[in-house]
Design a protein that fits this description.
The protein is an all-alpha fold and about 140 residues long. The chain has 5 helices and no strands. The protein has helices at about 20-45, 55-65, 70-85, 100-115, 120-135. The longest helix has 27 residues, at about 20-45. The chain is globular, with a radius of gyration of 18 Å.
Amino acid sequence: MAATQARFGTDGTIGDGTIDPAQAGRDDARRDEETVRRGFWPKLKRVVTRVPFAEELLAAYYCAFDRGTPHHVRVALLGALAYFVMPADMLPDIVPALGFTDDAAVLAGVLKLVVSHLGPQHREAARHALDEMAR
């Protein structure tokens, strides 16, 4: 039996040199979290007046960084938020009227899957942040 078991390397590879999918997923999640931590607020402040889904975006942000949110929900939300933050996407954000359509679609798809985890405290925090930005 021991001969048939895969051996895992410390670099995230399986004994035959292929990438361990679980390790790759953890690396992607960490990278998305860092991208969102670094770029979310600067980007949102630049575009908040042009983003009709800003409240949902902020509620997703607060839910993603809420330690009470299940890990799989956090990973999904961080992926959608990282897509919003990334400078290059399917429709450039500078295209009038269409620039944020793809961002909205990605966020809407993820929110549909995790809506039960988006609590009133996340929505309230989102409204408060928008009020503060409007001042």
